[in-house]
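Quality-control log, excerpt.
Job 1 of 2 completed; input and output follow.
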Amino acid sequence: MTHGAPEVMRLSFRPDRTMRTAWALISFTHYRAIPIMPKDDKVTRLSTVSAHIEAGYVHLPKHAPWLDEFVLEILQFPNSRHDDQVDSMTQFLSWVRERRRAVIRVYKLKGF
């Protein structure tokens, strides 16, 4: 994070709650929310990033109080009662992938 620049948090929302949730985050936190609308269902979103996970590009801390619950949710997906963490992970990984593509396109345009 650059000093003085606001943090940006990528979030996904239900269409009927998007703006209300974004405004609440802006009003009550220091985050600048960028509302996004997922294009596919949760299973499809996971399948689009699963190759990155399987290739070992996703790293998790060895010790974290939330790790066991997070891994269990991933392993039980899509048949688990809760899937919000899996969905958040897929949204983040898709965002990272898209940003990387955008940077590569800019470099190609500049002749690097």
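Job 2 of 2 completed; input and output follow.
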Amino acid sequence: MRYRYELIVLDDECKPDTGVQVATKAAADKSIVAGVTHYCSVVAAATVDTLHKLGLPTVVWGAVPPDITYGHKFSLAWESSSQLVTGFPARVGGSATT
């Protein structure tokens, strides 16, 4: 089976307040089904609870301080020694095809 998806970029500017606004915007858009988020650890720390509360599956790929990766009791899809995958923005129905 083939899926069509579109990757979108939402800039958090490495600012926690902006990150929370972007996370809220992404979670409110029903065409966004998951996210791959944050290189900037301070933004990841600020948004992880927001993304969880709003139900947006998120992969935090670059921000791996223990407070982010082990400081929560969220369900894990996959975990390595340095990364947590719980799931950022992929939009259904875009132009790229896998």
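Post-run check on job 2. Confidence is low (pLDDT under 50) at residues 78-98.
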